[in-house]
Design goal:
Strands 1, 2, 3, 4, 5, 6, 7 and 8 form an eight-stranded antiparallel beta sheet that branches. Helices cover about 5% and strands about 45% of the residues. It contains one helix and eight strands. With about 150 residues, it is mainly beta. The protein is globular.
């Protein structure tokens, strides 16, 4: 089959429960995501480089930003369980600030899994808007993968 474009809306995002390991909770309300890559390099230029810059990649990093609308149960007032778990993780410090997040296209056979810390974005909106919600996950360590349940 030839490679083809796929819908961003078919990517699913989940966070691992902070109280029940190996229990994954879908993060609802997302309508935009962005995965970014960064690198840190070391300058290896010497006099022998003859004025030409030389460097080597020493470190890579990744971030995942998810954005959408804040979801709230109209009866209980509780927010979406996935969003609530992200908000709890974002308030933690030190070793406790690390949690796991995973994401994959609905047709993928494996999840991409990160150990990461979370930072919440601004929430708000105007007169005719739904309340916004966003979070950024910064990966700590290397990616791993996990088979999706059949």
């Amino acid at each position: 089959m030839a490679a083809q474009k796929y819908n961003a809306r078919d990517v699913v995002f989940e966070i691992e429960s902070l109280t029940t390991p190996a229990t994954w909770i879908e993060i609802g309300g997302i309508n935009t995501f962005s995965k970014s890559h960064e690198e840190e390099t070391a300058d290896t230029t010497t006099f022998a480089s003859q004025g030409q810059a030389e460097s080597q990649k020493m470190q890579i990093g990744k971030q995942l930003e998810i954005e959408g609308q804040r979801l709230r149960d109209s009866v209980t007032g509780e927010i979406d369980p996935g969003q609530a778990m992200v908000e709890t993780l974002a308030e933690r410090l030190g070793e406790e600030s690390l949690g796991r997040v995973r994401f994959a296209h609905k047709d993928d056979t494996d999840w991409e899994v990160w150990t990461a810390h979370a930072n919440l974005g601004d929430q708000g909106g105007g007169n005719n808007d739904k309340t916004s919600w966003s979070a950024t996950f910064t990966r700590s360590g290397a990616d791993t993968t996990e088979a999706k349940a059949a």
